[in-house]
Backbone:
């Protein structure tokens, strides 16, 4: 049923994978509006898991790595950077939140207000758009941005 125009979310095994896509019962959710709806309403369940909370419907979901992904990076070190995530939010990159995880995957934190601060994984194209600006210094790898250098930390978890 993931191709349908609308369907109740209950009764499906819904998951968000590392590739930045939603799946229902291991079938790709091809409807972009439904995938966007899921991305805009995914949040922590407060117990280490994730849910899609639509107020009228609430469904636990499995998240492989992060509930949000960075799809695009724009900008430069002089003007600053903006990121676009899969929930269609464009916002300034919080350079201080950048970290490298296993397999050199880049992450940042985005603020979603009532949904909280959510860690976002950079998809490959966004990763390459940002890493071209990284600089190696005596202190390690940094991202220059609006007159400051932000170290790229290793994820501690």
Residues:
């Amino acid at each position: 049923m993931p191709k349908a125009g609308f369907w109740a979310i209950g009764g499906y095994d819904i998951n968000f994978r590392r590739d930045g896509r939603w799946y229902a019962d291991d079938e790709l959710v091809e409807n972009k509006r439904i995938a966007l709806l899921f991305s805009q309403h995914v949040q922590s369940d407060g117990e280490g898991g994730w849910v899609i909370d639509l107020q009228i419907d609430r469904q636990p979901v499995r998240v492989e790595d992060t509930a949000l992904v960075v799809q695009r990076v724009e900008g430069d070190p002089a003007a600053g950077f903006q990121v676009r995530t899969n929930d269609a939010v464009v916002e300034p990159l919080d350079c201080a939140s950048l970290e490298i995880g296993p397999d050199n995957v880049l992450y940042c934190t985005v603020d979603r207000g009532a949904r909280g601060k959510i860690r976002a994984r950079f998809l490959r194209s966004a990763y390459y758009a940002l890493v071209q600006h990284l600089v190696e210094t005596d202190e390690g790898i940094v991202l220059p941005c609006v007159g400051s250098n932000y170290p790229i930390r290793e994820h501690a978890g």
Observations:
- The chain has two helices and 16 strands.
- The two ends are 36 Å apart (CA to CA).
